Amino acid sequence: MEPIKELQQGEDIAIITTNYGTITVRFFPDAAPKAVENFITHVNNGYYDGITFHRVIQDFMIQGGDPEGTGMGGESIWKEPFEDEFDVNYRNFRGAISMANSGPNTNGSQFFIVQGAEVPEDIIKEMKR
Q1: In the prediction, which pLDDT does 123 show?
Q2: Nearest to 124 by CA among 61, 54, 56, 64
Q3: Mean pLDDT, to the nearest integer, of 73-98?
Q4: Segment 1-30 mean pLDDT
Q5: Measured distance CA(35)–CA(11) in Å, rounded
Q6: For residue 9, which of 15, 46, 58, 128 sits 20 to 30 Å off, Cα-Cα?
Q7: Which of 36, 14, 9 is nearest to 24 (CA)?
Q8: Can you list the alpha helix ranges (DSSP code H) found in the chain?
Q9: pLDDT grade, residue 91 (50/70/90)?
Q10: Contacts of 65 (CB under 8 A, 6+ apart)
Q11: Is the pLDDT of residue 120 over 70?
Q12: CATH of 13-128, one of 1.10.3720.10, 2.40.100.10, 3.40.630.30, 3.30.70.100
């Protein structure tokens, strides 16, 4: 895994404002172009405004992006699921944001932010199912 380079001037970021503070999101469009386009478009269209983090697992992750707040809702900007995008240089480490889905190639609007120090291999394998 290559070290992540410093944020460059002009790179897109998103600021998520919560009751507990702010979260700055950095994007890697070369690694996940559809996920980045989907997230940024939803942000710009106000899709995520007022949405809660409906799933919080201490020292593991926080999940949001579901307008219903149940973990069952949400859709992509294309109105249908889109394929998974993986890159070995961007594994799930503390602070990483990833698409949340219900199985392979089912990405919609939900995302999660890793809260653990490093996601163990067995959990990564489970997430790929």
Answers
A1: 64
A2: 61
A3: 90
A4: 84
A5: 16
A6: 46
A7: 14
A8: 33-44, 121-128
A9: confident
A10: 42, 48, 51, 74, 100, 108, 109, 110, 111
A11: no
A12: 2.40.100.10
